[in-house]
Amino acid sequence: MAEPRQVPGGRETPQGELQSEVVDDEAPRSPSPEEIRGRSSSSSETKLSPREEEELDPRIQEELEHLNQASEEINQVELQLDEARTTYRRILQESARKLNTQGSHLGSCIDKARPYYEARRLAKEAQQETQKAALRYERAVSMHNAAREMVFVAEQGVMADKNRLDPTWQEMLNHATCKVNEAEEERLRGEREHQRVTRLCQQAEARVQALQKTLRRVIGKSRPYFELKAQFNQILEEHKAKVTGLEQQVSQAKTRYSVALRNLEQISEQIHARRRGLPQDPVRRRSSPVGAEAGPESGDSGDVRVEGAEGNDSLGRSRDNERNDGDIKHFSKKKMGRTKMRKKAGMCLTLPKFSKQL
């Protein structure tokens, strides 16, 4: 009976059941299936699969840039909006404090002169409405004149050839006639509106003149208060317009942010749809190594064995397990970022389980 010998890194095994390590003068050993799989997995790390190429869709980067730009604009404009609102509230409080001080100093003449200044305000508004109505009326008159010229040109074209009726000129004449009727209605409407606001403006001016005659003394005494109030009202209107503009900018930026999010969701759905249509990536499905337990999906395939099983004993299995352990660590370090991305997309990769039994 042969004496057992101690093999480095293994157990005592009878001589003859274990091949000695390859030395320099021996022929090179043919690669095992585990080594072939290890080489193929390492070479696949530098080659992107179709799914990884889908993840690098240029539309994603473009939409992310739009998303970041909209987010930055929202943050900046909201800061400006907060400052504008704070300034508006500060000016409003300051104006109320100064007007109260001025009112307590002047006394009851302010209440007596208030109808006069209110009438002046209404007269000013009526004057502005009169100007707007005049512009609308002038625009309607211009449209009416242009439509009449079109009718004249169309009539000349129709009458050019009395023996033959051109349908093109006839259609142009009908269209021009409709435009004349519409312009005439708009002109009459603008004329009536201009007359109405003109009467209101005249009535407001007459009331201002009447109050100015009856309240001449209190008007002069309360003038500083109402002038100060008019100044503060103008400043507040300017700040209010600024706040309104910033609110519109924030709303537009939020709209662009929402559009970018929807586009990203659509791109993600398209990628998922293409993934469901793609075949399973063969590189990602690794067969069980030597010593692995057969799972429920293994089917009829048993343990993978190298040809010449008599030459593979416990030392060969120990080396295979060490190689598989290193393969797992290398795979987990290289593919950690890709695995996180697949978790978000519902495509998390499951690593094979290696048995530690010898």
TrEMBL record:
Cell location: Cytoplasm
One Pfam family cited in the UniProt record for this chain: SH3BP5
Basic and acidic residues bias: start-end ranges: 26-38, 316-330
Coiled coil: 60-94, 173-256
GO CC, one annotated term: cytoplasm
Molecular functions per Gene Ontology: guanyl-nucleotide exchange factor activity; protein kinase inhibitor activity; SH3 domain binding
Highest taxon of the lineage: Eukaryota
Statement: the UniProt record of this protein carries the keyword rRNA-binding: no
Written domain comment of the UniProt record: The N-terminal half of the protein mediates interaction with RAB11A and functions as guanine nucleotide exchange factor. Four long alpha-helices (interrupted by a central kink) assemble into coiled coils, giving rise to a 'V' shape.
Stated role: Functions as guanine nucleotide exchange factor (GEF) for RAB11A.
Name by which UniProt lists this protein: SH3 domain-binding protein 5
Natural source organism: Sarcophilus harrisii
The encoding gene: SH3BP5L
